[in-house]
Amino acid sequence: MNIDYRVISLGTLSAHPLWDEKGERRTGHATTTLITTDDAKIVVNPGLPAQILQARMDERVNLQPRDITHVFMTSLTQDHYRGLRLFEQAEWYAFEAEGIAALAGLRDQLERAKSEDDDELEGAIQKHLELVRRCRAAEDTITKGVDLFPLPGVTPGSCGLILSLPRQTVLITGDAVATYDHLQQGKVLPHSANIEQAQESFKEAVEIADILILGRGNITFNPFRWSGY
For the chain, is the Cβ count within 10 Å smaller at the N or the C terminus? Predict the structure, then answer.
């Protein structure tokens, strides 16, 4: 089984807590990764708007959106799936626990919007609900060599993907390991739904992986496993 992975677009946080940024300094979006195997082409976290993401694909890989077979979201927050509609032909997946939590949260938001007679907000939430409802609960394995690796804490059902290569273990972490600064300092995002759980997931990520693809960063060697890095 041949497995190739590459970053299509580097993500960013709307405000970087380890840089002491306050408020929203920029539009946050998750790092987008492409995994290619013998029988699948998987986009992970299409966080950019569809038009911009299509341009990034044109720059990075010789593929069209119709070539993608699967889309997987490590979390179901908007900055992880903003460009999801680009891949209408693909199957959309998230971890089951994340889907349940996301739907519950959106339904609560919808009820509040209705009670406040905010038609514009209600319409926006309905659009998000449509996308999340279409996402299927992923099985333990997306395709051979590409397995789910639950990393709850930042959101209730945050879940990475682990790629089993002959000589290396690669983990797409989602926001469980957000940036290189978070990796170096051993810290999790302060707005995590469950800080203690997020810290445990961070530890599991750095214990298992030789190479990490960070939630809002690039591909990096795991400094806890590579001497001299």
Answer: C
